[in-house]
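Hi again,

Forgot to attach this to my earlier email, sorry! This is the prediction with magnesium ion bound. I've pasted everything inline since the attachment limit keeps bouncing my files.
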Amino acid sequence: MADIVISAKGIHKTYGKRSTSYEALRGIDFDVEKGESVAIIGKSGSGKSTLMHLLALLDKSTKGVIKINGTDATKLKSRQLNKIRCLKFGFVFQQFFMNPRDSVLNNVMLPLKIAGVRKSQRKRRAMKALKIVELDDKAKNKANDLSGGQKQRVCIARALVNSPSVIFADEPTGNLDSATGKKIEDLLIKLNEAGITLIVVTHDEDLARRCSRQIHIKDGRIEK
Amino acid sequence: MKIIDVISTANSNLLRNKSRFILTILAVFIGAFTIIMTTGINTGVNGYIDKQMASVGGEGYLEIMPASTMENLGGGGLDIMGDGDVKEYSSEKAATEIEFFTQKDIDKIREIAGVESAKAYQMTSAEYIYSVTGEAKKFEIQIGEMPSDSLNVDMAAGRMVDLNNGKAEIAITDKFIEPLGFKDAENAVNKEVKLAVKNQMTGQTTEVGATISGVMNPNVVGFGRAWINDAAGNELHDIATAGLPDEIKNQSYFAVAQLTDDYLTDEKVTEVKDKLKDMGYSAMTIEDEIGMMKSFFDAVTMVLTIFGGIALIAASIGIVNTLFMAVQERTREIGLMKAMGLGKGKIRLMFSLEAVALGFWGVVLGVVLAFVAKEVANHLAAETFLKALPGFVLVKFDIITLIVICLIVMAIAFLAGTLPARRASKLDPIEALRYE
Ligand SMILES: Nc1ncnc2c1ncn2[C@@H]1O[C@H](COP(=O)(O)OP(=O)(O)OP(=O)(O)O)[C@@H](O)[C@H]1O
Ligand SMILES: [Mg+2]
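Structure tokens for the complex follow:
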């Protein structure tokens, strides 16, 4: 059996309290193996993002256990959770979330800054990440001046700059046309082939098909 | 994140909205500047008083007045405005209340242990002065009897009047050298002048001769008065009061006393003052008078400092507002950084540092402009109202006080930053990222 990076057991997530409460996840069991690429697919509102946030330790489940490399994440202190997210995870979001007035380079260096990497190393590593997404010539540009596809490539550079073991992507192609989306897909698949575990929430069937495994979510449950 | 990166991030975040940054800093600056300037004036004025008084001497010299006079001077403030309570007249009280000194009173004071000498202080005034040797132009002059030879006055030439000299003497200020027709201070010494005095009953003016014993440098003792000795004082007094009943002639509202050499310690002086108090007098040493003067200036500068403090409080509300806006604007960014593993403490620190930086730049601006204002104010003051008092530096900065003010302003800014910093650190990353 291969190494299990993330394992989820009996996950429930309820938003809100009493009368307005909504159970977004209703018992999810699933493991992610090292080096896998998992596509989480399903209708809007089915709970895909919620699941991804829980797996990425951004949120706490109402019930159930999430283990990262075998350690129970619910038992970890927030400082340790921060450390895992900082050093082991990379994130790509649909709306990019960049600092538009800052330079491309500074945006890519942000995770390294948070991780406390020395200044001399930051630039070198960020440039390497930008080279992978073929945007090293735009390093000095303002993030705002890039096209949507370029922005998302910068976000991918930012996600891989700290050499994570897992990259989480929530609808990475959602804001892009199919041609630019294709380029993002290629990049993500390429990273996965280089050994980074990929967990991607997507509506894009093309991207889903290229992943090694697809998980269908319906009404907070995994469809068999 | 390394602390150095938190600091540099906080600093560059501040500059993102430059106009807001500058306006917030201006508010801090106004408060800091006001406080720096008022404490600077306080330091300057008190420093000058101290310097002057250190050279004044006056050890063992006491000014004595009836306790009731003192009350009227100090406590009666609102009475003058007709706001005092109506008091029933009591003949008993009136009888015990001493309002002026008689020879008997002076004798009693002389009997107190430790009092070497005491005398009633006569208020003298002259109509005008003119030089016998010069052009004989007449000038108005403020004069006073030199109360004690224990007071030191800085002389430009000659010496202070000799209280024991039977001949009339006068010590003039250097302002009178030229008007009286002398070449310089040395030239004025030992020259004869005439003082004119008016009889209080007839209004008739009589001239009296006096010798210039010396010329004084500008000083605060007597605020620019010319000093005369007892011989001159008695002569002027006699002419002024000639024809008046003796009781009125000899009325004196002040008395001065000199303590013996073994009564100069604080305890001994207090002992004498207490005895005088029991007799219905109030006595003040030179130190007491300096103290009164200083507490007056302290009160004035305190009020101004309070205004500065109020401005600072308003500025700190500005800081709170600025940072709340910054948290609002950067919600997503904060969420993203938290998602990427930046701890709560660091985010809180980042915003607290932004607040401190606002305070810091405000106070730096305050210090810089205060130094400019100091130069301008001192220059203007030296040219105008302090012209007669060389060595009087109006505004003076004390480095410790400056540092303390800087630290206090930054502490206030830090406190103002705690609320927004807390809000930022508590942001939920998921909600922040969903925030439109
Ligand atoms: N903070 C919240 N409070 C209350 N309900 C929430 C909250 N977040 C999500 N939900 C609800 O949980 C359900 C699942 O939301 P989620 O964002 O996981 O959907 P999704 O599958 O990612 O949909 P989409 O494809 O549109 O992004 C939705 O019905 C949503 O309304
Ligand atoms: Mg979603």
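Chain B has 14 helices and eleven strands. The CA atoms of residues 59 and 73 of chain B lie 25 Å apart.

That should be everything now.

G.
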